[in-house]
Amino acid sequence: MMPVIPELGYDVTTFGEMLLRLSTPLGERLETARLLDVHPAGAEANVATLLARLNCRVLWTGALPNNSLGRLAATALRTAGVVMDGVIWRESGRMGTYYVEFGAPPRGIQVTYDRAHSCAAEVLPEEIDWNILLNTRILHLTGITPALSKSCYEIVNEAVKRARQHGVFVSFDVNYRQKLWSETDARQTLLPLIRQADLLFCSQADATRLFDCKGSMQETAQGLLDIAQVPRIIVTFGDNGLLCWDGDTWQHELAQPTQVLDRLGAGDALAAGILYGQLHADFHAGLRYGTVLAAMALSQKGDMVITTESEMLALSRQSSTLTR
Questions:
Q1: CA-derived radius of gyration, the chain
Q2: What is the DSSP string of 31-44?
Q3: pTM for the predicted model, two decimal places
Q4: By CB distance 3.0 to 4.6 Å, which of 41, 117, 177, 212 could disulfide with 21?
Q5: Domain that residue 209 falls in
Q6: What positions carry a catalytic annotation?
Q7: CA separation (Å) from 188 to 191, 195, 235?
Q8: Could you tell me the sign of the dihedral formed by the alpha carbons of 23, 27, 31, 35, in that order?
């Protein structure tokens, strides 16, 4: 299936921070590790690279240092097919990094951030080329970026406002990170933003701790819909799949079975699949694409899913046949 080519410049644009993920081999602790696996990462970049691999025209906007680490990140974008016109290159500054320990039960994944004062956190609103960021069918943003700095919040807030003025479809993923800010600050900052979205993504955990939505899957999802007041909403429940409000009815989509190798990036893969469906005028098929891609993310190492449009469509047809 070929992508729908719009009159606009891009199918999807986004703004955010790229990081480098340094992870220990399974079973090793960070404080004694001698080897670390390096993967480019970042919620918005994960979505952007996956959609680009699915033959969508995608632009990522953000800042990178003009050094070997920044070029490593840029190579990941470029290799996937992301348009690089939105990259702001810095001659000084740093990339944010985060360190991951993969632990088997009873330990879980342990994350250590080292991202303060990164190039991305210090981008100013006047540095954004609004003409290219808004020259798109969909603007995708997350709740991670407003937590990075005052200027990042201002950019996200301005992007949402301008998108609404220009009739650009806004996709927003709550993506709460407790290591970046408190639940109270996140709730107060994000609620006015998400109420301007056309499509909202949120996990059950974030719905509960930020917006006090509790109870059954249906009660949690309905509670969030009542608070967010958005046209469409996706609430994820881990192994229990997702609930989607499409503007008229609720739909439950089951999670795809998989062997878990790496849990990071699954939510971004889900969002990419659903946005792909939105772009191709088949939002409900996008739910299946999203769950297939989320399963693929769980079964691959690294945050960025490596696949093709034909592979995703084939696996989606296969999963649809198996669930009939």
A1: 18
A2: GG-S--EEEEE-HH
A3: 0.94
A4: 41
A5: 10-16+43-62+125-322
A6: 268
A7: 6, 12, 20
A8: negative
